[in-house]
Structures are given as structure tokens and as C-alpha cells.
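Entry type: protein chain
Record version: 2
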Amino acid sequence: MKKLFPLIIPFLFLFTFLLSAQEVFVFDSIPSNVTAGDSFYIHIICTSTPGFNGAGQLSIRPDPGYNPMQPTGMILFNSGEWGGYVTVFMASDSLHINCTEYGHNDTNLSPRLIVSANVPQRLRLLLPGQGTRPGDLSSRGREYIFYVQTADVSFNVNIAVTDYWWNPVGIGQDTVRLTSNNPFPIFPPDTALIAGNLDLSVKLRTAMDACTIFVEEITTNDTILVPDTSSTIRIVPDLFSKLLLIAPSQTVLAGDTATNTSLLPGATPDTTDWQVAGSPFDITVYAVDDCWNPVGSSAPMDSIRIYGQIGPNTLADTNVLSGGNTTVTFISDINGFFRLQAEDLDNSSITTKYQTPIKIAGAHYRLVADEELDTIISGSPIHLHIYYEDEKDNVITNDDHPIIIYVYRGSGSLTPTDTIVRTLTTGTVEPVVYYTTMQVEELYLRVSAQETSRLSTPGENENPIYLRPNVTPDEPIVNYPNPFGSEQKSTTIVYYLSQDCDVYIAIYDRFGNLVKKWNRNGVTGYNYLSWSGTNNRGTRVANGAYLLTVRATDRTAIVVEYRRWIAVVK
């Protein structure tokens, strides 16, 4: 101990010296009332060292954990004095400014300073348990919080009118409105503030990780308060309470507020597409809470039965929940409409709350024409047989619905309209249609459902129907197309003979020069000839009008003589 004493004496001396080195500062000029964000002048003297020329630092007391004032850096004393303008951003009726020598923590408080809030400029929204940070612009006036809430459980939010520096002003009767990025929030109606403050009860129904609530002023006046967005909220599903059955065309609509079961609550779209008879389709069942939020892996691995009745047949399958869902595959060979539902075999109280409608369409249409592989005249009747069939080509007899008949391949038109509507009765219909054309061609017709959502494959005649133009006594010779030579490289000449005879056919230019000739054995009825637009030497002729002549003779007698102009356009 005697050996340590000489060492303690110098240490105590040094400690006393360090304590005495901390300067004492006195505020000899400072206002008692100021406004947040407005600068004011203060004067400080160093009473412990009148000639002090060192650095000092200002801060707010009580210490809020952040520094809501300026300047925040060093202030420099000159001969023991410093004077300058400072700004306090935090409103309070009991603040002090503390001045210390730079790098020290001693206390040298100013007289009490009352800082009033500035003019109203903002709205601020606080979540439950979220503290405030008035005067702190970087935090938007509030503490960070990771807020977690259960779907469809009420919680209160606080809305306050603040100045620019996030200080509550305590005045204002503005009407505010809440919105959210949560698809299905339940908010109170637009509400007026009371003395610049308001607590509102809200619910968010859709489970999601990053919800926010947005508040805005909707009062019509000259001053619009800046809106605010809350801190992030995580909404988690509630407990497993029911099953949600999703058809192939649907997705889960978590949080859905629909209560009309005809709208398929919890699913989007609120209708289902047609499925095809004989083709597999998937049905997925989700374990959900009361707001249709999938509960995921928190659901037990229960056995789920999915079932429905279509015609005389029952479709049913059982599978186990894994990760909160299960998928089963169904096939129906019967066309029709039925409803699927699900039940939890391990918990009889849990079922689907509504039945999902499933529409099964026939696989395809089949079209047969009596005139297939026949040559008929334009405008003649075409007798069709149309069948609605499943995947096994069985006619489906329990579905009556409108179909449309239209030209699949051909340049002419159907009558009475280009698209003919007929109704299948017990899976078949035998309409008569009429097709008109101005050229020789092969015709294919097609039939499909008028209801475009029905997934049945259209059908067309397997073999072509051969068409030729109608040559009449008023126009006993025709050619199609006319003009030709650009897209159509040849034209078909059709002429009618009342008896068998010899035929001389010639084409002349407009100056009377022979261009092309043919000698034919004509037959009674319709006769056909194709001209490719070349002369007797095989060279393509120039654009222009050419005279076609057809002379039919029986020995020396002229039976008929036809003339017609043909236009060539390349």
C-alpha cells in the first residue's frame, strides 16, 4: 500500500485537472418562446475562462435520442463569447439548450425554452405502439416499427395534423380518407378530424407482407395538407377454417369481400371456363381462413375429398393437404354442367362454403356435306349434317346450343348471311345452306360454337365440294376472274352448249390480231377452258382488253357464237 500511494497522488491531481478543464457556459441572451423551424438569436459566455477561444457544441435537453436543432456541429468562441442564430425543430413547452465544450458531456443548460408548433402542413399516420419523433425529418416524425397484424382483425391508427417538422399542431377539422394497397381493406367512411387528431379502427383482409395505409385530406379549401403513408404492415392469415376449391381458369382472390356465392367468393375470375369432355382438368383445393387467405404450411395434413355429380356419374377423388393445398385431376366423358365441392375427412366441420360450377363441353363438331366430292353450280343448295361429339366420337345428345356455320376455304359467300346461326337439338342439326361464287373452286365449310368460351374444336367437311359459276341464258359465257393476270395468273372460261358440236375458240387483241386459238369437241351442258394469258407462242400478252369468241358448229351449221371481252392486268 505504501508503494502504491506515490502513484495515486499524481492520478488524483490529473483527474482534478481534467475536471477543472471543462468550461462553464452561461446563456445571457435567449428568447423564452419560439416557433419550430424559425431561427432565433442566442448569446453564450464562458464564465470559467473569460478568454476562452475554443470550440463548443449545442444540443437539446431533455435528450430525445436525436438532435432536432441546428447548428449541430462546432461553434467557435472568441474571447469567451459566442453569438449566433439557432433553429429548433421539435415543439415542446419544456426544452433547454445545452452548451458544452466540444468533446465533453457536462451540463450547461439555458433557461426554459417554449417551442410552439409551426403552421399546419402535413398529415401523420401512426400504427399501434408506434412512438413519435417530432422535429426529425429523416424519420418522418415517427419511430421505426415492424407491425404484424392478423387478417380481418381490427386495429387503431392515429391521424394527426402536423407542421412541416412533424410536430402536432392541435388544430384542424379537415376531413380525411383512408386507402391501402391491400386489395380488400375495411375502412370507416371519410371522417373529420377533431382538433387536428383522430383515431380510426381499420381492418385489412388480404394476407401480404408489405401493406401500407394512405391518408389524405379531401376537404375543399385553399390549403391541402400533405398526405402520408404508414409504415409497413405485415398481414398474416388467420386460422384454417374452410376449404377453397379453384378451377383451372381461376386463381385465389385472397381477402375477397364478396358474399354472393354465385360470384364464387375467394376466386378470380368469378366464373369458370369450359372444360372438354374426355380431357383431363385439374382442381386445386386450398386450406384458407375466413377471408380466403391460404394458410400454407400451418394447415394440417388432412385428407380432402373432392366430389360432384354429372349426369348419372359421380366424380370423386381423395388427396392429402401438403403445404396447405392439394390438386386432383378429373376426366368427364359426359358433356354437361355440374358442381364440385370438397370436405375435410379429418375435420367434419371444415368444408367448402360454396360449390364451384364446372361446365363440360363436347370435344368437337363434325360436319358432313351430301355434296362432298360432287361438282355443283354456284347457288345450289348444300345439305349439311352437323354432330356434336365427345372425345370418343359419340354424339352428345343432352346439349342444345347455338352454332355458327361459315366459309373456311372459299372466295364466295353463304346465304342468307356470311355466317349462319343454327341451334343443335340433341346434339345434331341438318341445315341447308347456299353458296355463291364467281369462279371454279373447292369449298370447305366450318362449324363452331357461337359461345366462344366453349372449348369444343370446330369441324369442317373432310372432302371438298367442287363449285363452278352459274352460266345462264342471259349470260351463256363467262370467265372468272375478270380481269386477271396480277394475283390470278389464269382465267376460267365457262360456256353452255345445248348439244354436242365442234367448237372453235379464239382470242384477238383490240386491233383484230389473233392471239390464241383452240379447237375443241364441245359437249352438251357446261364446258370449261383455262387461259393463262399467253399467245400461241407461249409468251405472256400485254395489259389490255382482249376479245374472246366461241363458235360452235354442227357440220356446217352454226349452233351458237359467243363474244366476250377479257381484261388482262399484270
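Comment: The chain has five domains: 21-116, 122-236, 242-361, 364-468, 477-568.
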